[in-house]
Write a structure and sequence with these properties.
- The complex is a heterodimer.
- Chain A is α+β, with helices and mostly antiparallel strands.
- In chain A, helix 4 crosses helix 7 and helix 5 crosses helix 6.
- Chain A is globular.
- In chain B, 27% of the residues lie in helices and 19% in strands.
- In chain B, strands 2-3-4-6 form a four-stranded antiparallel sheet.
- Chain B has four helices and eight strands; from the N terminus they run ββββαααβαβββ.
- By secondary structure, chain B is of the alpha+beta class.
- In chain B, helix 1 crosses helix 3.
- The chains are: A alpha+beta, B alpha+beta.
Chain lengths: 276, 158
């Protein structure tokens, strides 16, 4: 770290995200605005330069016939060394989000897409590339409120908080589709109880005919997608128990997102009261 | 044989008859269904297998063969949730399928312990990252993958 500290740092930004104090320093002031654009959703600027984790970013580029690498560090660990500055910024963004997801105070991050429907959250747990982003987009187009494309952020009561990162997915040919959260309707603000957890795995041609899982099995499936499962299992188990206590958990194969979205919304309708 | 449930380095949550257990030593999570959870609760180091079968029968409202308890104990042993390690009865422990066939039990009454290895945080990295993508993500270059391997058709990190 001392060697890094000796480099000339031209500007920096201290911020708070989910109870964590983070900082990014850069070697060129003009890069700071780019860095601010990749910070985790809901970050707030801090005046104090004291941070829990410090990131460093060296912007590369061409200087005459010389080409400098862009470098990114998390603490003293190098996380990117590439001639493409966008790649290094991407690595920085990814590392920042993952650090926040793992170490956030009083919040449990589950890898899942989330939308809200009739005052309840629908959680779509799944690893990257399991197709949840397209399903989230289809649900938002069908009238659900967008909460998150990446993480279900849970509090100790098991309520789901918005994490309005841009909705984003990568095609087989490595093209990225990005939809800003602002294009997906009114920004969500309040935390919601979960109404449905849908473990929907994409398979071309499949039709959504899910089976209900017991709360225990549902909770196990959520643990498998929880970022701080190893770091803070007590908080994780407690929060997930709250989720499966209030939500139905369904599992099954699904086909195209546009076909599945209305079926999910139908399943998430609050049950009507039976009047005797 | 009077097994004792392990209590150290475990986080335990009960859920409508099921029990969720997180093993802090091995970073594994286990889901014990109702029958397995009952048997685990009986493991106090003083109760024999025959006594467990009798108690289970009373709680479930039908006679339960000791084989069912052995089936639960074998799974709990594999999950390292009982001590000492299980010494199986002579002739071994019957399989779930054999228990359904021979004992005429409904499958729902059979003990089940499901286990997973808790994910490491890095497994939560996004496919949308330009580098450090986890396995299974689409890729065009090896340097995009955390594993530095981009193979197959279509290409994916592996």
């Amino acid at each position: 770290m001392a060697a890094l500290d000796r480099l000339g740092w031209a500007a920096g930004l201290a911020f708070e995200s989910y109870g964590l104090r983070l900082g990014v320093r850069v070697d060129r002031p003009d890069v700071l605005e780019r860095v601010a654009g990749i910070l985790p959703p809901g970050w707030r600027s801090r005046r104090s330069p004291v941070v829990d984790q410090l990131y460093s970013f060296v912007a590369g580029g061409a200087e005459g016939r010389m080409r400098r690498f862009s470098l990114a560090y998390a603490g003293s660990t190098r996380i990117a060394r590439t001639p493409e500055m966008e790649e290094a910024l991407g690595a920085l963004a990814s590392s920042l989000r993952l650090y926040v997801a793992e170490a956030a105070r009083d919040r449990v991050f589950v890898h899942a897409g989330v939308v809200a429907w009739r005052g309840r959250a629908i959680l779509l747990p799944g690893r990257s590339c399991s197709g949840k982003s397209r399903l989230v987009a289809a649900l938002a187009r069908a009238g659900a409120s967008y909460y998150s494309d990446e993480y279900a952020v849970l509090d100790a009561l098991g309520r789901v908080h918005p994490y309005p990162a841009p909705l984003c997915w990568r095609d087989e040919d490595d093209k990225t589709t990005r939809i800003p959260a602002s294009e997906l309707g009114e920004p969500a603000a309040r935390p919601l109880r979960a109404g449905l957890v849908a473990l929907a795995r994409y398979q071309a041609g499949a039709r959504w005919r899910p089976r209900a899982l017991s709360p225990g099995r549902g909770m196990l499936a959520l643990v498998a997608n929880t970022i701080p499962a190893r770091r803070d299992p007590r908080a994780v188990m407690s929060a997930l128990k709250q989720v499966v206590s209030s939500a139905a958990v369904w599992e099954g194969l699904r086909g195209e997102a546009e076909e599945t979205a209305p079926l999910l919304l139908q399943a998430a309708e609050p049950r009507s009261e039976v009047v005797a | 044989m009077k097994p004792r449930a392990r209590v150290d380095d475990l986080v335990v949550e009960e859920l409508e008859g099921e029990t969720l257990v997180y093993d802090l030593q091995r970073d594994k999570a286990h889901c014990l269904n109702r029958t397995a959870a009952r048997v685990w609760a009986y493991c106090d180091g003083r109760t024999s297998v025959a006594q467990m079968a009798a108690r289970l029968g009373r709680e479930l409202g039908q006679p339960i063969d000791a084989e069912v308890v052995w089936l639960a104990l074998r799974q709990l042993d594999r999950a390292r949730l009982i001590r000492p390690p299980l010494a199986a009865p002579e002739g071994g422990v019957m399989s779930r399928r054999a228990a359904v066939r021979r004992l005429g039990l409904a499958a729902a009454l059979l003990p089940v312990v499901l286990s997973i290895v808790a994910p490491e945080a890095v497994e939560g990295a996004s496919c949308n990252a330009l580098v450090g993508r986890p396995n299974g993500c689409p890729c065009t270059l090896a340097t995009q993958c955390a594993s530095l391997r981009c193979i197959g058709n279509p290409k994916r990190c592996a």
